[in-house]
Design brief:
Elements (H helix, E strand, L loop, with lengths): L1 H12 L1 H4 L3 H10 L4 H9 L3 H7 L22 H9 L15
Length: 100
């Protein structure tokens, strides 16, 4: 695994490898004694081969707050008051339902 990570680092830092065609990258990886997972990922353009080799797990971050006064909901009073003055409108017919 450490060899694969080292090779990925080398590919990322070497522009000729980073922008190489799939065929040229395969040749370079064979010469570097890359793992089968890295070779398959490069050939297929599919990172799942590396994920399987490196034991990747899904990362999920959940943001919570212990402060009961803190909320992600925001209330815009200006928007609400602007809507109070507007007459109701029937969306389907386009008719105003105001008492004018």
């Amino acid at each position: 695994m450490s060899n694969t990570i080292e090779l990925l680092n080398n590919i990322g830092s070497d522009a000729s490898l980073r922008h190489a065609s799939s065929e040229n990258l395969q040749k370079a990886l064979s010469g570097m004694h890359a793992s089968d997972g890295l070779k398959q990922a490069a050939m297929a353009g599919d990172k799942s081969y590396l994920a399987a080799e490196l034991g990747s797990k899904a990362n999920m971050a959940v943001e919570t707050s212990n402060n009961p006064h803190e909320s992600s909901f925001t209330y815009d009073e200006d928007e609400d008051s602007a809507n109070e003055d507007a007459p109701e409108r029937d969306v389907e017919s386009g008719d105003d339902n105001s008492d004018s």
